Amino acid sequence: xxxxxxxxxxxxxxxxxxxxxxxxxxxxxxxxxxxxxxxxxxxxxxxxxxxxxxxxxxxxxxxxxxxxxxxxxxxxxxxxxxxxxxxxxxxxxxxxxxxxxxxxxxxxxxxxxxxxxxxxxxxxxxxxxxxxxxxxxxxxxxxxxxxxxxxxxxxxxxxxxx
Length: 162
Fold this sequence. Notes:
- The protein is built from five helices and two strands; from the N terminus they run αααααββ.
- The chain is mainly alpha-helical and 162 residues long.
- The chain has a domain at 4-91: Rna Polymerase Sigma Factor, Chain: A (Orthogonal Bundle), CATH 1.10.1740.
- The chain is elongated, with a radius of gyration of 23 Å.
- A two-stranded antiparallel ribbon has the order 1-2.
- 57% of the residues lie in helices and 4% in strands.
- Residues 124-162 have low confidence and may be disordered.
- Helix 1 crosses helix 2 (20-42), helix 2 packs antiparallel against helix 3 and helix 2 packs across helix 4 (72-102).
């Protein structure tokens, strides 16, 4: 294993030049340790597979920022571990939302409508959920969008063109 970091540097340099076969070799080399790392964090095989796969995708997109000569393994495993932690946090929020939405319901109660669930999830009441968007026009309305739209490469652009 002494020669592996040098081999990694060669593969990374090739992958940075667009050689997808080189990156496939990196994935083959590290997929088991990436899965094990994600599994320790998530405790779920399915989530670990997803986290490892997404980690490899994110690492590929960030290859141009990888410093040649640095050790690939800790860099890659940190990306995978971060993705696994994000999945754990996300599943915790989903679970809390499910609990909040089911509070007050007993087995045998009629299921709430999808609209009621969406309203509850947004923390809005059905009486005021759409009030800010009402217009006095018979035609279709376009709402301004002020959020950020993510683009590849870590840059962001305003959706409204600003």
